[in-house]
């Protein structure tokens, strides 16, 4: 293939196949405005009195870019958007936006509010595309802990560890990788060494002593889960940086994982750093120096909207191009898949055209790099296709 | 209103009304070059031998943008600038620059070198505009401490706390909010919990034992001041990030306040993060997830000069547009009000035109957002106008 | 001199004399592709399976900008590049690239793999230019320690300290400054106070007890070295920020040195912060507030390639223009000198033209600032020429 003009290049990027290696399902229920506004922010609080979530980068993207997908004028009012949206069947909204993404392969993480959103199979039904599962380690541990706690067993600690091992082995067989939300639960500022049997035993006792639904907030068990995944040579997705108000963002700097990466070189395990904003330059450094570290700037792309161009450009500094991935990190709203894909295409195109114009990169080479980042790096990493 | 062209939009931004929610007074004395150079840098040292403070972003702004206000050619030499400036009465310089700012409302913080600079009333006389006071908490505590220490009282600790309470109540009645310089005095890396009576009592004893002019550098009393303000549902301005060499900048990351924001949700108190550079992206995240957190990039705008465009654009990422404010943080030189306002208008205009051109934002919507950030957000937050 | 057009300005920047105040020597042996790829990355691991180091910003710079220097087409394949390169004598490659840099003066740091690369004298022979030495403090201490350990001496601790003092005094006489890699060896997150005699004595005992080649990883002795240099009013180059995987990047934030800078004001010593990425904004702040702090964004320029423009622009924010320096930090490959110089010229030109166009900076003033940053600041700082 030979691309002869910037227009041809832009056209090619518009239909660039994408591998969305980290996303969640979409809601299948009708949404009213308050629920919709809640889903276009990482905040767990309602919008400040006197303001609306529509007055934000992502709100402007919804009005500007999503409205036309629903047959509305670009930059219609929030009221017009919600009126049209609530008049349509949820499935039709989901289909319209998902079709418009050009995403060919999904890596669906199933550990967050799985009852509210589409499963891998349902997403496959909706899109006709390949959907792979990504298993959330902490969720599996919580489910196993609740099961063991509630059944009559002697030696519950041992039973938990055995059942956890069995369950994880089974789950990863059908998945392309695992995910850890250590950043949310304990932060990343502790030594990620393999726990001793004694440490682990004490931590399990404590975990099983929780009443009601169990919440894993213990760094020892999280280390156990991570080392399970390392020993099994998994691709391990890690939440990094920006997220909701549950996170202590200053404790989510990926550089805090430097020692974990040193310890796991050569294990066969690989790590993908998710989102990373505002630490994406730090992530690029790690992807450069560690052969088993990859990263993306998903989530941040959606939420920085018209500024996603700048964030994507910053992600193209130190990292080898073979270590950068695409994800939408969409959750709930099909608009988020669409915007994630659209803003990614546009921002990547803009950065590469800038390199073409300022540093003479041939357009064919720009396109080769775009294909790597959009699809091929993930396909090679996850060993699919 | 309907804006039909970029020229019309630029024109509208030139006369956008501004609410400068955080600034200090201007000096009223004649300034010679060494004093002037001292006031265009955050350093407490003279310029390095062989260099001049005029060779900096702000120095170039003074020569490029301030010179014409005084009737000089743009980019006249520093010598020409100082010659003209010292030939003019100080009040006339102050009036010329302040008039040219287009600032309609001032929030004047009165706790720093108040004897050298104009008071709220004097600034009102100079400008004819509305001037509100912002009370510096640490300064009030120091004044009360000196008074109590120096008078004959039994039980000085109790007397201090009572007098502090009375004084603060009186001061905030006539102010739109309070300011804390915790970042300067103790850094932000400690838990911002409410102090116990016992902790507080010990800290007060120590404070009152200081000789000479009292300097509050105790985190316990600062926490007491902050919780006073939270309990009174105040707007609390916080120094964040960049400042002079008195600050440990790495201990001024606003993310260190995450727990304080969690604890004070729903209290009625609101926080405005000032300056924030180079942590303005972090500030934008906090403004997104916490309904009572606002921020600005004042100070940094003046001092990054021709690069202020980039800083302002970066401030328009995660934060809802209803949570971003304008301040000049001008101190001493009327040039700093003028440059703060001018660079803010230009940088905001440039960012919004970019969003118009790249992401199709209608110019009317760009203008609506500009009005929010320039004035309306502050008016709503401080409940004035 | 009066520059009348942007073209004239660009032409002047193309031949701007450069003072590369921090670099290493070039290899003199023929290199095969694996060695070459190793030298265009900071990683100590081979490229990830399925990727090549040529698919990176620096790889694209080699193909785009270095290929024509060897008589090849821009963006020839890596295979063509390596074929041509291996067909040429190493000295001829070195000469071609070094001549094309326009570097007039070198500050050559001799402490890293000195046996593999050219010495100051050899670099002078290659280029005909002035080459000054920069002495790596830790290397001198290691050499002295090995010598003292291996000879028959009573009171080895005292002998070590005496010999260290004598050697350092001799070495700095022939050098323009010293370099410390404290960031690599112990991180920057400890108090940089002067060690006590007792602390020092214990640390020396431990150092001399090492077997084989001695590696200095002790913060006490490093503090001793730094205070030696401060007492001798040296220019002290400090590794900051980005480097290879041996570094804990989050412990290399230059802000961690704030107290060291406070303690050494007025000592006559000056500090140059090297590389700094991704903490170059923080470095700019330090260069503003401390009169004896300078910085550069070397290394990051080479490795961010087509994005170096953005990094250079960010380095032109808070710092006075008289405190910014140029370095390539080239090691091993002559391509790295060439790219460092070329990307620096282009990025600086681009930033300054932007300031000309957006903030009316006269082109003569842009050129004056370029000369300062490219050469004059370093000449004044190192007191040469």
From TrEMBL, chains A, B, C:
It comes from Corynebacterium accolens. Residues 217-383 form the Amidohydrolase-related domain. This is Amidohydrolase family protein. InterPro entries: Amidohydro-rel, Metal_Hydrolase. Pfam families: Amidohydro_2. PANTHER family: AMIDOHYDROLASE 2 FAMILY PROTEIN (PTHR43383:SF2), NODULIN 6 (PTHR43383). The lineage of its organism: Bacteria, Bacillati, Actinomycetota, Actinomycetes, Mycobacteriales.
């Amino acid at each position: 293939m030979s691309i002869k003009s910037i227009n041809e290049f832009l056209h090619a990027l518009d239909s660039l196949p994408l591998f969305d290696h980290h996303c969640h399902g979409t809601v299948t229920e009708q949404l009213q405005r308050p629920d919709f506004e809640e889903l276009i922010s990482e905040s767990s609080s309602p919008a400040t009195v006197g303001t609306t979530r529509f007055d934000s980068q992502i709100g402007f993207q919804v009005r500007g870019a999503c409205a036309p997908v629903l047959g509305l004028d670009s930059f219609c009012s929030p009221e017009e958007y919600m009126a049209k949206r609530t008049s349509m069947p949820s499935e039709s909204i989901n289909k319209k936006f998902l079709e418009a993404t050009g995403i060919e392969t999904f890596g669906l993480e199933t550990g967050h509010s799985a009852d509210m959103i589409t499963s891998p199979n349902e997403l496959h039904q909706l899109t006709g595309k390949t959907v792979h599962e990504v298993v959330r380690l902490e969720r599996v541990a919580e489910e196993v802990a609740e099961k063991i706690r509630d059944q009559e067993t002697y030696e519950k600690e041992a039973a938990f560890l055995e059942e956890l091992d069995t369950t994880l082995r089974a789950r990863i067989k059908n998945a392309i990788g695992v995910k850890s939300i250590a950043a949310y639960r304990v932060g990343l500022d502790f030594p990620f060494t393999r726990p001793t049997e004694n440490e682990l035993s004490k931590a399990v006792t404590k975990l099983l002593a929780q009443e009601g639904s169990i919440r894993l907030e213990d760094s020892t068990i999280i280390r156990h889960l991570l080392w399970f995944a390392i020993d099994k040579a998994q691709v391990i997705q890690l939440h990094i940086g920006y997220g909701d108000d549950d996170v202590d963002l200053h404790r989510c700097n990926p550089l805090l994982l430097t020692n974990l990466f040193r310890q796991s070189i050569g294990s066969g395990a690989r790590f993908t750093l998710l989102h990373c904003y505002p630490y994406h330059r730090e992530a690029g450094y790690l992807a450069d120096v560690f052969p088993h570290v990859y990263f993306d700037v998903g989530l941040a792309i959606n939420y920085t909207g018209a500024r996603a161009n700048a964030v994507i450009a910053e992600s193209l500094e130190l990292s080898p191009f073979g270590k950068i991935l695409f994800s939408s990190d969409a959750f709930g709203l099909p608009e988020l898949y669409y915007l994630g894909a659209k803003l990614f295409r546009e921002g990547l195109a803009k950065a590469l055209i800038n390199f073409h114009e300022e540093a003479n990169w041939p357009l064919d080479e720009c396109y080769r790099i775009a294909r790597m980042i959009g699809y091929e790096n993930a396909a090679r990493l996850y060993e699919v296709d």
